[in-house]
Amino acid sequence: MARVFWTAIAIALVFSSWVDGFEGYYEHQFNETELSLLEAHEASLSYAGSNLLLVGLTLVQNAAAKGAVCLDGTLPGYHLHRGYGSGANSWLINLEGGGWCNNIRTCVYRKKTRRGSSDFMEKEIYFTGILSNKAEENPDFFNWNRVKLRYCDGASFAGDSEDETAELQFRGQRIWTAAMEDLMSKGMRFADQALLSGCSAGGLATIIHCDEFRGLFPMTTRVKCLSDAGLFLDAIDVSGGHTLRNLYSGVVGLQGAQKNLPQICTNHLDPISCFFPQNLIASVKTPLFILNAAYDSWQIQSSLAPPSADPHGYWRDCRLNHAKCTAPQIQYLQGFRNHMLNVIKDFARANQNGLFINSCFSHCQTERQDTWFADNSPVIRNKAIALAVGDWYFDRAGVKVIDCPYPCDNTCHHLIFR
Fold first, then answer.
1. Which class does domain 2-402 fall in?
2. Engineering a disulfide at 159: which of 110, 170, 280, 379 sits with its beta carbon 3.0 to 4.6 angstroms away?
3. Are 136 and 283 in contact (CB under 8 A)?
4. Catalytic residues
């Protein structure tokens, strides 16, 4: 217990020191680090005060022969906790998030971290939220085979290229394929039901790979996908620029992702547009659930109002704490919410799809226990996220719920940065 507590404290201290240097950092580079630390902050909120499950890292031993390696050439890996009882033949694959790298400099930096090398990955990680093994914390998936696939390529498991001079391997697509083959050999091929999920960059990867995942199994297997905080919008930032599109342009071009993006999109749109989920979701054939905060914290901070688009600091206080936003800023953010709702209109028409858009300032809600399933979890129409996802997955009920606009929801777990 003490180990868990002090781990949480250490993570929180790292995060607070990052926030202190927040403004200057953005002026110099825009890469995955801010998202990794935001995720660490979220994790620290989940870790304190409970007896958590630690799951060891498994490296995919035959991956190197397939060229399926992390940015630095090391083997990719995953954490697997076996299912039992009624869940023995059910599989949940969770794709780790953690931003992207969009140029040689940021990718070289990334390959010296857990986001680019298995040498730096934790040998054990906590399984919480949708990965928890406790029925009271994870009522529908607690006894499934649960897998966290580590993210070490920087292009949402979609790239396939290399840069010999910089000694960089962009092999996300191969990592995806090698990991799936390895898991199929360990029993996943016998699955009665399977769910592919992911948060943030992993949520985007879930959308990109959803139909591929479906294709691994017989049609008799129930297969669905859940994207958490993966609905990154092709939005105009507060300066009138395209911060996120510019980032994605670098990611797709550098890492050779265009050939691995869904052809149904690239046949009529440019590859950068096809890295945006808004242009993919309506054509995904497999049942897909989109869980997203209407005021996604990462998108506000890094896409809509990053310091690079806000040189005079007009958005600084609002960016760090929604309660400090002016009326015009809230109006701008309501426009972002409207954009999101417009993007999902066609997607929502399909009966098989699910939707949970809550009016919170947050990012990633499935892997945190307090937002996934707890006494004070966020709800829409009195239903917590875990129960909404379970109802949809098992066809107990159709779930397409959209919260009323901020500030009407008092169940949110807002992220406040200091």
1. alpha beta
2. 170
3. no
4. 200, 296, 363
